[in-house]
Amino acid sequence: MPLVFAGIVPHSPLLVPGVAKEHYPLFSQTIKSVAVMSAELYATQPDAVVILSPHMTSVPDHVTVQVGDRLEGNLTEFGDPSTTVSLWGATGLAHLLKAMAEQQKLMLEVQTPTAIDYSVTISAMLLGLSTHSVQCLPIGVAHVGAAALLRVGLLLNEWCHQRPERMAIIATADLTRRHDSNTAERRPTKEEREISLAVTAVDPAPLGAYVGKSKTCGIQPITTLLACLQPHRSKGTIRSFEAPLGVGQMVADVSLGA
Questions:
Q1: Mean predicted confidence (pLDDT) in 216-243
Q2: Which residues are bridge partners to 237 per DSSP?
Q3: Predicted local distance difference test score (pLDDT) of residue 58
Q4: Residue 119: which pLDDT band, with cuts at 50, 70 and 90?
Q5: How large is the C-alpha radius of gyration of the chain?
Q6: Which of 16, 114, 189, 248 has a CA between 20 and 30 Å from the CA of residue 104?
Q7: Long-range contacts, 205-213 (Cβ 8 Å, 24+)
Q8: Rounded distance, CA 80 to CA 133, Å?
Q9: Helices within the chain (DSSP H only)
Q10: Where are the domains of the chain?
């Protein structure tokens, strides 16, 4: 079964009312765009959702997949113990992906701790994953080089097409951190403009120069996602962009071709 949905969502803790209630209204464009994306995601009836994470604990040069019957997340580290998510894991899918990675000599590590990182937690919360009977497979790509990310993306594409399950892939990504949050600094940076162009063209190549050098945590997940989607006749759409408190927040999705 080919991919049925692909998109990019941010994971700033400021998007969570329990963390920053006074700042939450400043992210109205992002919140509205994610709500629309969430509805469109579930309209495709996915069986499993892959979340590409930049914050998962991992071994250098290894892709990491997280497995367990249930995956649990909370935001206690941000002073909000009341916000929690509980997700169905995708253990079987993870081990099938690992077997394919070994065949292609890609270094992929399976982790069994069931506590998910905050980027996966917030993305899952924004998309409402815990309220649906859908499996979730977090994949960490933070410590992988540019060339390997392209291979990982192609591996994910092949893996999805070989499975009978309906698969969705989400890159969780915050963008540039600004030095201050005045009005001028809220405009997209040069790097953010290049990311936007790469997303709309569904072309990971322009982002390769930033991998391993940029402080933008979203570079690796977005590069991997675009590499996965490149074999499709796809077009990306930026749903919203804003940076009200100094960190760029992008919501985007990709219309999938054949």
A1: 92
A2: 253
A3: 81
A4: very high
A5: 17
A6: 114
A7: 207/146, 208/146, 208/147, 208/150, 209/146, 211/145, 211/146, 211/149, 212/145, 212/146
A8: 25
A9: 28-43, 91-103, 118-127, 146-162, 190-201, 219-229
A10: 3-255
